[in-house]
Amino acid sequence: MVALADELSEEGRNEHSRQLAGLHLKNLLFARDAHISAEKKRKWYTDVDANSRSHVKIACLKVLRSANPQAAHAGALVVAKIGALELQEKQWPELLGQLLKNMTTKDVGNSNLTKTSTLEALGYLCEDLEEEAVDQTETNQILTAIVDGMREDGAITVRVAAARALLSSLVFTRHNFDNETERTMIMQVLCTATKSPDEQLRIIAFESLARVAALYYEKLPQYIEALFTLTLTAIQQDKDEQVSMMAVEFWSSLCEEELEILEETNSVDQSRTLSHRQCARYVCAAASHIVPVLLQSTLVKQDEYADEDTWNLSAAGAICLGLVAQAAGDAIVPDVLAFVENNILHAEWRRREASIMAFGQLLDGPKPELLTDPVQTAMPVLVRTLKDNHTLVKDTAAWTLGRICELHAQRIPQGYLQPLVESLGGALQDSARVASQSCFALHNLAQAFERAPRSRETNALSPFFRPLLTQLLAATERRDWQDHNLRGQAYEAVNILIQNHAHDMRPVVLEVMQVVLQRLHSTFSTVVVSQDDKEERYQLQSLLCSVMQVITRAVDKDIEPFCDHIVALLLQVLNNEHAIASEEAFMALGAIASTIEQAFDKYMGDFFPFLIKGLRNYADWQVCSASVGTAGDVCRALESRILPYCDEIVRCLLEDLQNPTLNRQVKPAVLSCFGDIALAVSGNFVKYLPSTLQMLEQAAAMKISPDDEDLVEYITVLREGILEAYIGVVQGLHDGGGSPFIKPHLGNIFQFLEVVVNENGDDPSLIKNSVGLIGDLATLLVQHAEEVSVYFRQNFVVEVIQEALRQDNLRDIALWTQTKRDTLLS
User: Fold this and answer.
1) Distance CA 44, CA 304 (A)
2) CB 194 within 8 A of CB 206
3) Residues 6+ apart with CB under 8 A from 143
4) In whole angstroms, what is the distance from residue 113 CA to residue 102 CA?
């Protein structure tokens, strides 16, 4: 490291070599993978002595003053990486002072370059630092340096670097935004930058304002009028599309923040607590101004040669309009419908496409009944537009029909199903882009029949079922199947059609199954020349396994005569050991086990080695997760017949829980699987009970910060898995007379239940399982009432049962639990 730092900082060395030294030094300090990065941090402190660390830091700070831009840039990267490591450990206290000194020193010939590289270092540092890693004094130092760099009389390179650094630092400046003087200074600096002649500076300034809207929404009132004017002017008049896009992004961020606040308020209302955030409804107030600007200045700026996923002004405006529809609701309907009416039959294709896009974005937000007439009026026009002479218009028409099928299927006019289905079927033979959107529409149309009773002899899709499946299966084998994910979209539509078929279409589903099996069989004889060929084969196998899973669950016991052939093919897929294909094959096998139940025992000898290999596949965690789910399916299917395989399965599951490298997303399913095993083997589970309960108690004790949204979501899923495991264990012990084994653990179980009730009281699934577990424990321990009654008399137990009784979907289980508790306490 010392040699690399010297190479980087030595002015006489080759420019390319200095740059490479800096990049290599940065890579020794940092990795994207969290585990590898933590190991590099450890080595920085354990393998590099204090003198060497000091030498490296001094050398890297020195290079910020280099006359060579590439070396200075590399130095900024390294300084930021070291700073991120050390400031979090309260080391290198002089760093920020040195950087601030660079911003104020005027005695170097290349002061603008020094300031630029210093600001780059500050920007990268802010990207890498955790919010709590810097105190207020350090934040003030960072902000002082950045704001100084954004002065109007400064060089543009310095101002751009300062603007980037400010964008990265905004997450640290909450205290500064709480201070009106400092907040106004920051906002003035940003607003001034939006008017700069330099396009890059304007782009970053508007991006920063969008970030401010998301981070400091509650601080916007005194600035909103100025921001309104600046953003709408930029959207309409700025010559640089990127600037206009960032001005649109401000409104998108504002919409997202208001939608989040309204959702929080709604959930707070339901839980009868006070919300700490108020929605100012800026979007609703500005809707009559912002909507016409989006319609006239963004949606009509399409690039007909852009890829589908290209992010441009037209795409940004469309997304923003959809968000405005959700945030402002009914208020925007008249403006959008007027635009649609004036342009949907326009001679200019851009106007036609923009009007259809606007209508599609309007569909989610306003009251559904307000859109009934517009949807019914638009349907014939949209269906005819599938034959427009411009691909982009057809593409957007198919997408909008898909949105109608998704959000307003019940508003499709009576008798209009046939022309809709026939037109979408015809669009499957159009360009791959249009065909893919047609698949999306058919998927959503079939999804609308999800709630129809499966036992019904027929439904409205039955007359079109066979031709649609034929057309979709043909689309999966088009020469351009790779374009616009056509093959994947078509198979998804096939899956949903099969999933929601009526009983009269069962023979057609079984015919499709034979086609799918034939295609899966033929993949094993496909000529493979390159790695791309191999990947294509595995991707196809994955899609076909997915269809087999759906067919199996859809036709139920009718699958039994075909199981030998199906299982043989699925095991062949697993034998290839490809992650994506294996994941789907495991899920298909789980579906077969769930369907044929104990008859699956005949396949266990061949399948079991693959199951164990999957449970130990720590590298491909999705495969491991799928195999855990399949293990649970097999346990539920085989019941006591799983016993000969249990020792190895339990050993693997315990290893999964203890393995620090396995993705944490797998672990809730692992815990739940213990419940499946306990239910399957009942009293025989006693031998696994000590290790299982120890793991459950360790998982239940996990604490997190409520500010970490990802962890909060994970802990909810984890608790679901813990509850399912406890339920399975308690029910299994009841069948096997194991109440004495659970009594010593009651304190921990009820402590966990209390935490769940207090922290996840608004989660219906967790409350349902908590109430169910209380009932199961009361049932198991009724013979030990005197010893255990104290647990069932706790206030939270009474309260959660009462709360569940007030909810229609939980009343039955709450009544059952109340009866079991009363019996135990009587």
Assistant:
1) 52
2) yes
3) 166, 169, 173, 176, 182, 186
4) 10
Instruction: Spell out the residues 6+ positions from residue 87 whose beta carbon is closer than 8 angstroms to its own.
Output: 95, 125, 129, 133, 134, 138
663-675 as b/e: b if 16+ CB within 10 A: eeebbbbbbbbbb
What local confidence, expressed as pLDDT, does residue 41 receive?
87
- Phi/psi of residue 786, nearest 5 degrees: -65, -35
- What do you get for the CA distance between the two ends of the chain, in Å? 74
Give the pLDDT band (50/70/90) at residue 109. low
3-state secondary structure of 619: coil
| Residue 820 identity (one-letter amino acid) | K
Which residue, among 445, 549, 563, 562, has the nearest Cα to 511 in the 3D structure?
562
Q: How many residues does the chain have?
A: 826
Cα–Cα dist 356/339, whole Å: 10
Residue 478: count other Cβ atoms within 10 Å of its Cβ: 16
Two tokens, residue 398: 């198919």
Rounded to whole angstroms, how far apart are CA atoms 631 and 106? Answer: 69
How far, CA to CA in Å, does 689 sit from each of 75, 119, 407, 674, 781?
56, 58, 48, 10, 17
Percent of the chain topping pLDDT 90: 76
CA-CA distance, 429 to 269, in Å (whole number)?
A: 50
Which conformational region is residue 198 in: left (phi greater than 0), alpha (psi within -120 to 50 degrees), or beta? beta
- Tens of pLDDT, residue by residue over 645-693, are 999 999 999 999 999 889 999 999 999 999 999 999 988 999 999 999 9
Put simply, whether the predicted model's pTM sits higher than 0.90 gets the answer no
**Comparing C-alpha atoms, which of 709, 708, 691 is closest to residue 699?**
691
Rounded average pLDDT over 57-80: 92
pLDDT digits (tens, 9 = 90+) for 563-604: 999 999 999 999 999 999 999 999 999 999 999 999 999 999
User: How would you label 621-650 residue by residue, b for 16+ Cβ within 10 Å and e otherwise?
Assistant: bbbbbbbbbbbbbbbbbbeebbeebbeebb
The answer for residues whose C-beta is within 8 angstroms of residue 555's C-beta and 6 or more apart is 506, 509, 510, 513
Whole-angstrom distance, CA of residue 160 vs CA of residue 150: 8
Task: Give the list of residues 6+ apart from residue 168 with CB closer than 8 angstroms, or none.
Answer: 122, 123, 124, 126, 127
Distance of CA 44 to the CA centre of its chain: 34
pLDDT band at 707 (very low <50, low <70, confident <90, very high): low
pLDDT digits (tens, 9 = 90+) for 508-539: 999 999 999 999 999 999 888 899 989 999 99
Q: Which two tokens stand for residue 513?
A: 């199954």
State the Cα–Cα distance between residues 267 and 820, nearest whole angstrom: 31
Nearest CA to 424 out of 382, 392, 463 is that of: 382
What integer is the mean pLDDT of 450-458? Answer: 75
Asked whether the predicted pLDDT for residue 318 surpasses 90, the reply is yes
Give the span between the Cα atoms of 494 and 475, in whole angstroms: 11
Give the span between the Cα atoms of 283 and 331, in whole angstroms.
10
* Element housing 258 (H / E): helix 241-271
The span from the CA of 578 to the CA of 535, in Å, is: 9
pLDDT digits (tens, 9 = 90+) for 735-778: 656 678 888 999 999 999 999 999 888 889 999 999 999 999 99
- What DSSP assignment string belongs to 130-186? -GGGS-HHHHHHHHHHHHHHT-TTS-HHHHHHHHHHHHHHGGG-HHHHHSHHHHHHH
**The tokens of 460 are what?**
């409205």
